[in-house]
């Protein structure tokens, strides 16, 4: 009896304690949620206010990362291309005391060969001046007034010097067009047109043979156009050549009566071995600025000339 009564007494007590514990836990949960709810609302409000800015920042970071990756890929690709295209350099000599990339001191040499010439050279400052003081030439004085259309051949042998010739700067204009040869090789030509392009002088530089150099020109006079007065057309050649020798001395050859000219153009006239001794001398039509050309021919506005290498 006693044990049964005790058991019946203890069960309600445990039930009461358990119910009190559940009530207390529910109270604590309610209190915790009441504290977290304002924070959650604040976070939601912050996100709503700054959602656009956050998205922009994310896109900027993605773009920067992508750009950096592309830059690295391009740099690696270029380096790989350069490594494949550049020739391998020879190892330095074991007897050389200069480090790689340094300039060795000059050494004396018994050879009189000129120093190497780069692919571009400065425009000689006196070339345009000598060009403007040169004379217009052709075959026959009638060319200054009226001449039929056709082709003429001009030749000029350059003078020699005690020092070997190294290069020549050439400035040339032909009314209406030309093809220029040096020692048989075509080195320049005017535009293939009957327009006013001939009024712009052509300037080039060319490597010379140390001992023998011949310039040959096939000059063309176009038929008269509607712009020509009374259907007449003049023809003329104007040139200046500045020669540089191995000892850095210079000489100037301009178009004058020492040039040879003939028509029709013979085969092989551009060859340096061609015999032009029977050709007539060119006729001087007047200096730069004379009629009918006046001062219409303009010199090139350049400071560097291309170098034609043989």
Q: Which series of helices and strands comes N to C?
A: HEHEEEEEEEEEEEE
What integer is the average pLDDT?
A: 76
Taken as a percent bin, the fraction of beta residues is 25-35%
Enumerate how many helices there are, as a single number.
Answer: 2
Q: Report low-confidence residues grouped into runs of 5 or more.
A: 1-18, 81-118
Shape: elongated
- End-to-end distance, in Å? 134 Å
Strand order, biggest sheet? 1-13-7-4-9-10
Proportion in helices: 25-40%
Biggest sheet overview: 6 strands, mixed
Cα-atom radius of gyration = 45 Å
Structural class: alpha+beta
Strand tally is: 13
Q: How would you describe this protein?
A:
By secondary structure, the chain is an alpha+beta fold. Helices cover 29% and strands 25% of the residues. It has helices at residues 2-85, 127-132, and strands spanning 120-122, 135-138, 150-157, 165-175, 177-182, 185-189, 202-207, 214-221, 236-245, 250-254, 260-262, 283-287, 304-308. The strands form three sheets. It has a six-stranded mixed β-sheet with strand order 1-13-7-4-9-10. Strand 5 and strand 6 form a beta hairpin. The longest helix is centred in the first third of the chain and has 84 residues, at 2-85. It is elongated, with a radius of gyration of 45 Å. The model is unreliable at 1-18 and 81-118 (pLDDT under 50).
């Amino acid at each position: 009896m006693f044990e049964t009564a005790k058991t019946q007494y203890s069960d309600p007590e445990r039930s009461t304690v358990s119910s009190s514990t559940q009530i207390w836990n529910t109270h604590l949960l309610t209190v915790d949620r009441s504290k977290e709810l304002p924070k959650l609302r604040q976070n939601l409000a912050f996100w709503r206010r700054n959602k656009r800015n956050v998205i922009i920042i994310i896109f900027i970071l993605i773009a920067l990362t992508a750009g950096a990756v592309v830059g690295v890929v391009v740099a690696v690709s270029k380096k790989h291309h350069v490594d494949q295209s550049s020739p391998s350099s020879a190892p330095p000599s074991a007897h050389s005391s200069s480090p790689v990339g340094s300039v060795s001191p000059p050494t004396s040499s018994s050879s009189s060969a000129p120093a190497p010439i780069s692919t571009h050279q400065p425009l000689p400052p006196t070339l345009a001046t000598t060009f403007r003081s040169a004379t217009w030439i052709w075959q026959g004085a009638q060319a200054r007034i009226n001449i039929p259309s056709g082709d003429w051949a001009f030749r000029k042998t350059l003078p020699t010097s005690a020092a070997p010739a190294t290069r020549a700067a050439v400035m040339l204009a032909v009314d209406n067009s030309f093809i220029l040869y040096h020692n048989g090789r075509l080195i320049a030509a005017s535009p293939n047109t009957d327009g006013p392009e001939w009024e712009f002088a052509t300037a080039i530089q060319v490597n010379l043979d140390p001992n023998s150099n011949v310039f040959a020109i096939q000059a063309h006079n176009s038929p008269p156009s509607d712009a020509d007065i009374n259907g007449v057309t003049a023809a003329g050649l104007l040139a200046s050549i500045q020669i540089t020798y191995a000892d850095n001395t210079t000489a100037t050859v301009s178009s004058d009566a020492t040039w040879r000219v003939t028509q029709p153009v013979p085969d092989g006239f551009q060859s340096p071995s061609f015999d032009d001794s029977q050709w007539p001398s060119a006729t001087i039509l007047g200096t730069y600025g004379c009629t009918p050309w006046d001062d219409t021919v303009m010199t090139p506005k350049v400071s560097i000339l291309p170098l034609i290498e043989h």
